[in-house]
Amino acid sequence: MINYDYFCPANNETVSVAHGIREQILTWGELCEKAGHLPGTTLAETPVERLISGGMLAMVAGGRSSASPLPVMNSCCGHPSGCSRHG
Description:
Blueprint: E1 2-8, E2 13-19, H1 28-35, E3 49-50, E4 56-61, E5 64-69
Antiparallel strand pairs: 1-2, 1-3, 4-5
């Protein structure tokens, strides 16, 4: 499972959740249920956006694993100066 960050523009919250690569989370309700996060007053059908974020890449070679860090981005969108949504 991979950790993904999701942003909800309606409440300005970012929530991390682990799920399979083919799974899609489209709404605040789905996100809260999967992450075990309290939904608060935000409507369950409110759309969320999956963010692009850095992480770790594990490679296995010759029976040994080594981790190689990916470049860490300065913001959720990867633009060094940030973006207007999350600035």
